[in-house]
């Protein structure tokens, strides 16, 4: 993976960075924690400019967030409620739970989108509930862009500062993505177990 990312950036330059960050949002196993630090290292070597590198990363990420947002829109709250009423008993999710989650997102959705863009493991996933809850596109893009710009800038500058050791960023942040993902699954399982206990 590392070699493919390096070759893409070397051969396609800024376009390669944008393309990789776009794909990273569609296929989370592709790590932004490696793409942007490598791009920062390339800037440190004098082969690229800092501002266009960050801009390419941000544009690629935002374009990659849109398919998930529109999948959420396509699914929609009403369809999700119907599915929950039909199959939700297996995981203790009802249409009322969906409604509660949607109400929460209506109140806190902008903050959620902004901050989740800074969290490895949920950066990509946040686009889905934003679409499902019907969050308007313009605020979604604004808050996604702010959060993404901070994340991409951090990764790029880390790679710039670390130079030849840019891969350290991925070594430290890569496991964080997995930990966050596991914690989300554990939290969901605990919630399901508690719900079932209350029912009994």
TrEMBL record:
<feature type="transmembrane region" description="Helical">
    <location>
        <begin position="12"/>
        <end position="30"/>
    </location>
</feature>
<feature type="transmembrane region" description="Helical">
    <location>
        <begin position="140"/>
        <end position="160"/>
    </location>
</feature>
<dbReference type="InterPro" id="IPR032816">
    <property type="entry name" value="VTT_dom"/>
</dbReference>
<keyword id="KW-1003">Cell membrane</keyword>
<keyword id="KW-1133">Transmembrane helix</keyword>
<dbReference type="GO" id="GO:0005886">
    <property type="term" value="C:plasma membrane"/>
</dbReference>
<feature type="domain" description="VTT">
    <location>
        <begin position="30"/>
        <end position="160"/>
    </location>
</feature>
<protein>
    <submittedName>
        <fullName>SNARE associated Golgi protein-like protein</fullName>
    </submittedName>
</protein>
<dbReference type="InterPro" id="IPR051311">
    <property type="entry name" value="DedA_domain"/>
</dbReference>
<keyword id="KW-0472">Membrane</keyword>
<feature type="transmembrane region" description="Helical">
    <location>
        <begin position="50"/>
        <end position="71"/>
    </location>
</feature>
<dbReference type="Pfam" id="PF09335">
    <property type="entry name" value="VTT_dom"/>
</dbReference>
<feature type="transmembrane region" description="Helical">
    <location>
        <begin position="172"/>
        <end position="193"/>
    </location>
</feature>
<comment type="similarity">
    <text>Belongs to the DedA family.</text>
</comment>
<keyword id="KW-0812">Transmembrane</keyword>
């Amino acid at each position: 993976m590392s070699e493919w990312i390096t070759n893409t950036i070397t051969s396609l330059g800024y376009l390669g960075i944008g393309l990789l960050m776009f794909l990273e949002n569609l296929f989370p196993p592709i790590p932004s924690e490696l793409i942007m630090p490598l791009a920062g290292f390339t800037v440190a070597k004098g082969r690229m400019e800092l501002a266009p590198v960050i801009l390419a990363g941000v544009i690629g990420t935002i374009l990659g967030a849109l398919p998930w947002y529109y999948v959420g829109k396509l699914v929609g709250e009403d369809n999700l409620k119907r599915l929950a009423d039909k199959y939700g008993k297996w995981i203790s999710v009802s249409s009322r739970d969906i409604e509660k989650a949607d109400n929460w997102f209506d109140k806190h959705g902008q903050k959620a989108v902004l901050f989740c863009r800074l969290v490895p493991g949920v950066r990509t996933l946040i686009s889905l509930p934003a679409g499902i809850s019907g969050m308007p596109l313009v605020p979604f893009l604004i808050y996604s862009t702010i959060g993404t710009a901070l994340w991409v800038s951090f990764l790029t500058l880390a790679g710039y500062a670390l130079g030849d050791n840019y891969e350290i960023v991925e070594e430290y942040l890569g496991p964080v993505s997995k930990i966050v993902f596991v914690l989300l699954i554990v939290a969901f399982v605990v919630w399901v177990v508690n719900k079932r206990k209350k029912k009994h």
